[in-house]
## 1
Amino acid sequence: MIFTAELPIRFAHCDPAGIVFYPRYFEMMNGVVEDWCAQGLACSFHEMHIARGIGLPTVHLETDFIKPTELGESLLAELVVTKLGKSSVELQICFRGPQQDMRLKAKLVLVMMDLKLRKSIAISDELSTAMQKYCKI
Amino acid sequence: MIFTAELPIRFAHCDPAGIVFYPRYFEMMNGVVEDWCAQGLACSFHEMHIARGIGLPTVHLETDFIKPTELGESLLAELVVTKLGKSSVELQICFRGPQQDMRLKAKLVLVMMDLKLRKSIAISDELSTAMQKYCKI
Amino acid sequence: MIFTAELPIRFAHCDPAGIVFYPRYFEMMNGVVEDWCAQGLACSFHEMHIARGIGLPTVHLETDFIKPTELGESLLAELVVTKLGKSSVELQICFRGPQQDMRLKAKLVLVMMDLKLRKSIAISDELSTAMQKYCKI
Amino acid sequence: MIFTAELPIRFAHCDPAGIVFYPRYFEMMNGVVEDWCAQGLACSFHEMHIARGIGLPTVHLETDFIKPTELGESLLAELVVTKLGKSSVELQICFRGPQQDMRLKAKLVLVMMDLKLRKSIAISDELSTAMQKYCKI
C-alpha cells in the first residue's frame, strides 16, 4: 500500500523566484507524515503528543530536489515504509507533479520517543502492524 | 453568498503551548483569500501574478483572537465582502471551531495593485462583478 | 523609553512579488515582543512558559501596511507601551525602513495568561513596573 | 576558514513538544547560506536574484538531527565548503549548542542557476575564488 496526499502549492510556499522555497517542502512533508499517522495508522499527532506522551521525530533526512515547483501547481505525495525497526521507521516520500514527474524524493528516519524521558522507546505492536501495511517489498 | 474553506490544524501551526501560533493564522487567512480568488472569483493568484502582473496585497488588518485553537482541531473559515471600492475591497473573515464557536474574527482591506508600477489600479469589471456576489448586505 | 530591534529581511520572508509576505511580518513582530520580554523586561518567553507556566498571547491586533519591504533591506522595529492594565498591555510597534520611512504600524493587545487554567491573571508587580518604563506618555 | 553565525532559538521555531520543529532548522540553514553569500562571498541573494538573474538553489540535502534544541537556547552555525565544482558547491553545515555539542549536521549541494533559463551555469571566477577560502582541506 502507498499512502498518498494532495499538496496544492500556495503563495505562502513560494519565494522571490516564484518557486517553492525548500524549507516549505519540509512543512508539507511533515504534514504528509501527520496525515499518514492519523489516517493510515489511526493514531494522530494530537493523540500521540497529548494523550500518549509519545512523539515520532525525524532523526535523519535525505532529499533530492529534482525539479522546481511553481505557484499554482498541485503535487501528489506518495509515502511508503522502506524499513521497520524496533523503535524506528524509515520512509520514502516522493512529491510528483501533474504529469507524474518527480519533483522531490526523500528518505526519512523517524524514531518513536517518550517525550518526557526524551528517550527512544519500542513502537507499539498496534502501530507496527499498521505500519507494515505500507511496507514496500 | 459566503465563501467557506476547511482548515485542519497541523503540528506546524502550533506553538510550545500546544495552540495555534498567531502568525500561522495569517498564513491560513492568506490561503483562504487565495482559494476565494481561484474558486470564487475564477482568477488565481498565479493568474494574477504571472499572467496579468497584478496583485491583491493586504494594506490594513484588524483581528480579534477570541479563543485559542488546539492541535488536531479543524476550523471553518467564512469570508464575505463588507465593502467594495474602485481599487480596494474590504473582507470579513471568521474562523469557527467544531461547535461553530468563534475563534478569530478579522477585517482585511486589500488593494488591487499593478506589480511593476507598484501603484493601485481599478479592480476590473469582471472581478468586481464576481466580488459582488460575496457582498454582505 | 523605546525598545528597538533590527530586522534583516531574508529570502524566507519574501513572496513571488519579491516583497515581504505579510504573515512573516507577524513572525518578526512576535520576535520583537519576545526580545522585549527577555531584554527589556528581564523575563524571557522560556522563563514564562517553562518556569512560570504563564504566557502573553495576543488577543487583538490592528495593522497598517504602509509601504512594501524588499529582499535585502533591513528594518528597524520600535516598540512602546500605549496602555497598561491589570492583566493586559497594549503595544504600538512600528517597522521603519533605512530612511526612517514607516513600513508598518501595529497596535497589539496582549493578555497575561495562566497556561494551565487558560485564564487571564494579573501582571505581576515586577513585570508591570518593568513595562511602565516603556510607556509612551 | 569557517563561516559562523549565531542562531537564537525563538518561540516561532518551536513545536508543541517545546523543541525546534525541524522544517524551521532549514529556514535557519537557508539564512546561514544567505549570510555566507552576503558577508563571506560579497554577493547577497538580493544582488544575485535581482541584479544578476542568478540563484543558488539546494538540489541535495542530507541531515542528521543529533539532539533536540529547546526554546531559549542559542545555537552556533558553522559552514565550510567540502567540494567545489564547475557549477555546484557542496557545503557542510553544523549547528552546535552552548556546550559545543552537536545538534544537527548537514550536507548540502547547491547549484548555480540562471533563473530565467532555469539552467545550471558555471560559478563565476570571482565567486569561486571567494568560495575556495572556505574549503575544508
## 2
Amino acid sequence: MTEKKRFIAVIGGSDCTPEEARLAEEVGRGLAKNGAVLICGGLGGVMEAACKGASAEGGLTVGILPGGSRQTANPYVHIPIVTNMGEARNVIVVKSAEAIIVIGGGYGTLSELGHALRNSTPVVGLNTWSLSRKEQPDNSIILARNPADAVKKALGIIND
Amino acid sequence: MTEKKRFIAVIGGSDCTPEEARLAEEVGRGLAKNGAVLICGGLGGVMEAACKGASAEGGLTVGILPGGSRQTANPYVHIPIVTNMGEARNVIVVKSAEAIIVIGGGYGTLSELGHALRNSTPVVGLNTWSLSRKEQPDNSIILARNPADAVKKALGIIND
Amino acid sequence: MTEKKRFIAVIGGSDCTPEEARLAEEVGRGLAKNGAVLICGGLGGVMEAACKGASAEGGLTVGILPGGSRQTANPYVHIPIVTNMGEARNVIVVKSAEAIIVIGGGYGTLSELGHALRNSTPVVGLNTWSLSRKEQPDNSIILARNPADAVKKALGIIND
Amino acid sequence: MTEKKRFIAVIGGSDCTPEEARLAEEVGRGLAKNGAVLICGGLGGVMEAACKGASAEGGLTVGILPGGSRQTANPYVHIPIVTNMGEARNVIVVKSAEAIIVIGGGYGTLSELGHALRNSTPVVGLNTWSLSRKEQPDNSIILARNPADAVKKALGIIND
C-alpha cells in the first residue's frame, strides 16, 4: 500500500460482439499492468472479458453483482459484491470508480453513463453511445482511439 | 377501486426552464384528469410542476425521494417515499411506473431513460435527449407533440 | 390536504398466525379511521391483513415491494412501489413512516426493528421480539396491549 | 486463485468500547492469517479495528460504505465500495459474506443480524445481542468464547 491504488470501472453489455470483447480484454490487461483495480458489474460479455484480461496480468477485479448470489459472478471476478438490487447496482459501480471506460453497451450501459456524467465522474468511450439534446451534441464522453488510449486517458484524468 | 388505477411517471430535471415547467404542469393536469396516479422523484423543477398540475385537478402524486427526509418533497407530493438512496431511487421511479413521460432533462434523467428502455417500459418524450449508437439513431423514445399528446400516448400504450 | 396526513408503517411476517392476522387487520382499520396512510412491505401475512383492514375503512395503503413486479402486491395495496431491491426495501419502509407498529415477525421484521430504532423512529410492538444486550433488556419498543392501543400510541407519539 | 477465497464479514458499531476494538482487531488478524477476505461497513469503531488487524497480517479488506465518498473509509480499507445508500448497504455487507462475526453493536448491527439470520447466513457472536420472542430465547447466533474461537467457528461452518 505504499502507492495509492486506482479504481477504474469498465462498463458494457453482458452480451457483446467479439470485437467488443477483444477491446475489453485489452483494456483489462492495460489497467492491471498499470496497477489499477478493475471495478465492474461482475457478469459476462464486456465485464467478463475485462476481468479476464486483468486477471491474466495479475490484476485485482471487483464484481458488483445485481443478483443475490456470488455464483453469478464471471470466473475472473476476485471480489464479488452481492447486492441483490438489480440495476440499482449500476449506481454503486459508478460511484466506486474514479473514472469509467465504456465499451459498446446497451440501455443498461446508457443508465450508467447517465449516472457517471451526473456525478462528474470522467467517462472514456470506445465504440459507444452518442448523445445529443435539443439538436446539440453532448461531448461529455472522452473518445478513445483504442484500448491503450482508453487506459491512458482514464488513468491520466485522475492522476492529474 | 372499481376501475384499475394507472401509474405514470414524469421525469425531468430539478432545474428546468419555464417552458419545461409549463409542459410538465400540463402533463400533470392531463394525467389527473384521466385518473392516473403520478409517480416522480419528488423534488423541484419538472417534478414539482407536474405534481402541481396533478394536484390542481385532484390527482394523487407520489414522490420517490433521493434523500433521507420527507421534508425535501415538493409541496404537491401527497405520498412521499423516503429512500435515502440518492440516484439509485431513479430505478424505483422507473419500475413503479407503467409508462414514463420525460420532459427535457439532464444526466440524471438520462440514467432514468436508460433504466426505462432497459426494462422495456414505454417512454414518451417531450423536448428531450436524442440517442444514437454506432452512427445509428435509437428511436425507442416515442415523441410527443405537446402535453396532451404525451398523456394520450402514455396512457394509450398501456391501455392497449 | 387541509389536514396533515400521517404515515404509519405496519411491519410483520409474510407468514403469520391467524391471531397476528386478526391483530393486523384491526390495526389497519384503526389507522384508516384516524386518517393515516398505511405503509407496508406490500406482501402477504401481516402486511395483507393490515391493508385489508385499512381498505375496508376507506384508507389509503402503500406497499413497498421487494420484487420487480407490481403483480406481487397483495390485493389491498393501492399504491405499489416496485423496488426490485429485496430486503433493502425494508429501510425504505422504515424511513417512509413517522411511526411503526410491529406485529409478531421473523428475522426480516427484526432487521426492520433495527433500522427503525437506529433512525429513532418510534416503534410500537404487539406480540413481538424482546431484545437484550449484555444482560440488559432493551426497552426501546413501546408495548401495546391491543390493536386500538397500538394505533393510539403510534399516532400519539407523532402528534405530540 | 488456486485456493478458494473465503469472505467473512465483521459487523459492529462505529462507536465501540476499547474492549470491543481489541476483540475486533484480533478477529481481523485471525481472518487474515487464515487467508480470508474481510468484508465490513468500512467506517470506524469495530470496523476499523478489524481492518487494522487484517492489514497488519497482510489480509485484504473491503469496506462497503454508506456514504457517497471513498474518503469516508477508514485507513485500513483496501477496496472501498461506495454505495451512497445509507443503511441499505447493511444488506450488501451481509449478502457479500459467507459467514458473519458480530462484535458488540447497536441498532444498526441489530438490523444486520436480522438480515443475516433471514438469509440463513451463519452468525458468530462475541459480546452481542440476545434475542427472544414470545418468551422463547432465539439461539440462532453461534456464541464464541474469544476472537480465535470466533474465527475458527466462522471459517469452520463454511468449510464444512
